[in-house]
Amino acid sequence: MAEDKRRGLSRALYxxxxxxxxxxxxxxxxxxxxxxxxxxxxxxxxxxxxxxYEQLAADGFIDTQPGAASKVAAGxxxxxxxxxxxxxxxxxxxxxxxxxxxxxVGRRIAAxxxxxxxxxxxxxxxxxxxxxxxxxxxxxxxxxxLRAVERQRPTRLEYEDPRGNLExxxxxxxxxxxxxxxxxxxxxxxxxxxxxxxxxxxxxxxIDPGDGVVVENPGYRMAHHAFEACGAKLICVDVDEHGLQxxxxxxxxxxxxxxxxxxxxxxxxxLLPIGRRRALLDWAARRRAWIIEDDYDxxxxxxxxxxxxxxxxxxxxxxIHVGTFSKTLSPQLRLGYMVLPxxxxxxxxxxxxxxxxxxxxxxxxxxxxxxxxxQLRPSCQTHAQAPTGAPACAGRRxxxxxxxxxxxxxxGQWAALGGVDRDAxxxxxxxxxxxxxxxxxxxxxxRPALPSKWATETVSKTGWSGHGVCAAGTxxx
Length: 477
Ligand SMILES: Cc1ncc(COP(=O)(O)O)c(C=O)c1O
Prior knowledge:
- The chain is α/β, with parallel strands linked by helices and about 475 residues long.
- It folds into 3 domains: about 1-80, Winged helix-like DNA-binding domain superfamily/Winged helix DNA-binding domain (Arc Repressor Mutant, subunit A); about 135-370, Type I PLP-dependent aspartate aminotransferase-like (Major domain) (Aspartate Aminotransferase, domain 2, 3-Layer(aba) Sandwich), CATH 3.40.640.10; about 395-470, no CATH class.
- It contains 17 helices and 14 strands.
- The chain has helices at about 1-20, 35-40, 45-60, 95-100, 105-110, 140-150, 165-180, 195-205, 220-230, 275-285, 310-315, 340-355, 360-370, 395-400, 415-420, 420-425, 450-460, and strands at about 60-65, 70, 190, 210-215, 220, 235-240, 245, 255-260, 290-295, 320-325, 335-340, 465-470, 470, 475.
- β13 and β14 (about 475) form a beta hairpin.
- The model is unreliable at about 380-465 and about 470-475 (pLDDT under 50).
- The protein binds pyridoxal-5'-phosphate (PLP).
- Pyridoxal-5'-phosphate (PLP) binds near residues 196, 220, 261 and 326.
């Protein structure tokens, strides 16, 4: 107890002296009070003050010499202009001062205006796309998996392979091969901090300022942001109820890559038919363009096996397959993965190392364990009554949408499109959605494939922030 108190007092004294040195109150070369005098003044033991001075000397704030007075070290002071009555420095946090000091990438990111987006307060009817119900998280399973990972903690704690640890990637490889028919080696798999990091890496490594990037219209705005940050020119290609209209691709200007959500078009929900998948791959081969396949929620297909991925159809090595644990576990884990064409593995591995070395070992280990045990399918819980969630009736509203031809076997975010404003929410009049009660996201209910005009109008009216809609075929937000 006494020791704690002593440590607290010496920490306080250390902080006080350091602050005075830093703000110029004690100028460089100034003589500090003797330890004896300071101890008496503060009612401390001399030993405590001696320790503080030793620490300040070790940190380079003061010079001490045996038998001589301690002095403030040269260069330790950061005098504030205001102490000398000079004009205060320009506000480094003001927009202009700040922007002037940014790189071109920094300026483009600042111009996106998305820096202050924090968590949104839950509203009475919450159609926001992205959050999952906390109660759906498989807490016990997750804790068990984490505990198992921690038990295997090696004696030497070193950095991992930037792609992630081998065991987790092996588990993921099995999972992807079984559930998505992906054919790849473990070397091609890279575990990343959410699919957003995958998009960011792709943008930084594949796009130069001014390069064209084909995106879906409407499409996933967070992907657009990643490309725009690198100076890409977005080339918006309309989607219809089947997803990207690939017959329009021949008319687009030169593009370095195309970003698509073929298995569940975001946000309209179309499933890209095999003919269009092949057309997209042919286009990419002709244009020598990369394709990013964002397979963000195919686990939410129930009655039908998800369509063959572009990655599994790709014979030329131009598809980068991206997936996430944000839908099966939690967006807060910040965990996703990429399956890279062999030609890109080394470069992406180096970039991941530069970015953040690798994803957190325990988190990737936990997710890998769940993947290995086939526990990544959405849990079978009903959330029709979730108090803060969207009403389950949202799906019925979607089913009543014009052009709807039958129940969509997947659950997803469609309701979000209709629900983000009050008008749209009023459309949710029908009874509870029953066609997919087992889904953890039944509360967000079924996403139909809708005629693009109706859907796009709804999207633009609601102004929902999760997607971008191209205006006049040029921009996507
Ligand atoms: C199209 C799309 N891709 C990916 C994600 C997931 O992103 P992340 O893995 O960065 O959480 C989402 C989440 O809403 C999405 O809508």
